[in-house]
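Blinded run. Sample ID left blank on purpose so nobody reads anything into the name before looking at the predicted structure. Input follows.
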Amino acid sequence: MSDRKFTASKSRSNRPGWSVTFRHPVRRSRNEWGLKVRKGLGTSDDVTADLLVGQLNELLQDDSWWSGVRRKDAELQFDPVVVSAFFDGIEAVSHDAETKRSDVIPLPTREDGYATVLFLGTTGAGKTTLLRHVIGSDPEKDRFPSTSTAKTTTADIEIVAAPGDFSAAVTFMPEHEVRAHIDECLEEACLEAIQGKPESKIAAALLEHREQRFRLSYILGGWKAAAESDGDDFSSVGDEQTETTVGDEEAVSSEEVEHQQQRLSSFISAIIDLSQETGASCEAQLGKLSDHKTADDKATWLELFGVEAFRNPKFSSLALDIMEEVADRFDRIQVGRTERSSTEWPIIWTFDCADRDEFLSSVRWFSSNHHKQFGRLLTPLVDGIRVKGPLYPDLGADGEDLKLVLLDGQGLGHTASTVSSVSTRVTNKFANVDMILLVDSAQQPMLASPLALLRAVGSSGFADKLAIAFTHFDQVKGSNLGSPAQKRDHVLGSVGNAIASLRDIVGAGVAGAIERQVGSHSVFLGGLDESTSKLERLSRGQLVKLIKMMQAAVDPSDETDCCPHYDIKGLEIAMHDAIDAFRDPWRDRLGLSQHPKLHKEHWTRIKALSRRFAGGREDEYGNLMPVAELRARLQEEASKWLDRPAAWSRPPKDERERETALSRIRRAVEARISMLTRSRLSDDQISNWQTAFDLRGEGSGLNRARKIETVYDYAAPRISAAMSADARQFLDRLYQILHEAIVEAGGKVN
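Blinded prediction complete.
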């Protein structure tokens, strides 16, 4: 690093006074040293600014300063502004968002008499609309949490129903993740520009991340005509209901909208100029894009263009301009307290208030999705909202004195037939909740995503926590469905057929446990877009039933002294099937083989996945979830193997007792498999993921696919009679996991 030369220079930005811009020698951007940084110098005087820039250049030119431990020494020699500009961010402190929220609002537990309920459902099922009824949130007046016709983000919403005043703790996405998302949006916008797309398409790529979980339009404002349209298609939790009209006091003024349009227009113009300049450089190396006829040739050209655009100094300057606009929105928060990092990036916002209306109107800026508030919303920057207060359902005596913790967050995605796994962000919560509430549409129940959830819940040993709320029950119609009972039987019949299809996947025991749970823990709701007071008698009664089930989830679960005994036989075959079920689809996604039901993923998505693993930030990208998929396949096959013990300490009295004994082991296995898959696919492989992401030039897409295949070769080696030493070690580790889990749960291994 010391061989590289770094220089600072003063510059003007959107903020008043002089700023200093430089590439930081020990901060990284996309796995390369030299993150471009811009900091305000706090002065408009040329001479003072030059002196400060000179001091910063002293730090940049002497690598003995390039360590966080030298900060105290630097404070004795350099101006505080210079010290802050250089050292902030070197001593990066990891802030666990959930811990930060718990420091302000601890989550009560079963020991406190509270039941914790995890809401899960597909887009459009009505998950968040149902949550509103449970907390007594009026769809017209309160509008919290926000609902939408589609799309989700990773933000978690945690609600503690408790007497007293209202309080909130909102945590934010780390600064480097926001910068990474902005870089990706900029790159997509540049790709649109170089292909001659109109300004509206370029703006759409900039303002809406490809993964549709980060939208700059909420922060910077919508693009021209789009700003006048209904923008209710983004939510912190995703659902089926559109937002009602907001009052003038909450809407962004016409003057502010005009200013937003001017800034966005300047960004789009800068993107076009940057793309044209970079495109000319690429044409000198590879010829014109239009000269390349095949899809692979065009992909190679565009990937090189993306790399060169990112390396263009104008790219990082534009990214910093956008980051400044984003940071400016935090400065507009007028209530509460904001804790910031050493780089002044917000970590957590807290607020206490006795008045419900004032409280919710303040919190909505962090969760709203209304298009009339575009340009001022902070929703895409939020990773968690925790609120506490008297948030009870409008059910009279049936809604009083409840002790509930309600968790709502990322949904189950779309209903594509290929969905077979659930995000690790979801499955990691199963062990810590008392009820897993699946919200599903009664019109089309148990499509691919809900079935994937049932697979995950059952094979992990958590079937006894499952409950299902079927929404849109009022819209289940047919000439053969004349009464509510007939409609209910029709829905449950469809569900029974879907569960039957899982028997070969999760085993008869798990499928039977799920079926019993659905039969006893299902409710049927309709007309949820109305306020609770306007619900029909049937839906109101079912809502009361659901809330009673929630509160009862805190009661002790069944116990048994009946224990299974196992011979370690047949496990090798089960693990062989699990590995093949993981590896074969991924060969198709990577384009290394072909399958009639699967397709090769676009090179940009594979590259984006490798970028996330390389940065150690995430282990999935959209529906590409290798860690979740390997975890699910191993757990499912292990669950089926566990379903066939060699003997019992005593015969189980019935199927329920049998499943109670086996579920203890399944849960112990799931916890170990979760750690194993995360370690083997992510933590142990970061350098290989970085190599895969860094590949450039002709054939880089295929080479990246092959490199990822080598990651999978290590993480999940094929098991066969002639397996490698690595595969044998991996199989031995799986044997050990099963042995430890069985013994821990009270079973025996011969």
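Unblinding after everyone has recorded impressions. The CA atoms of residues 672 and 737 lie 6 Å apart.
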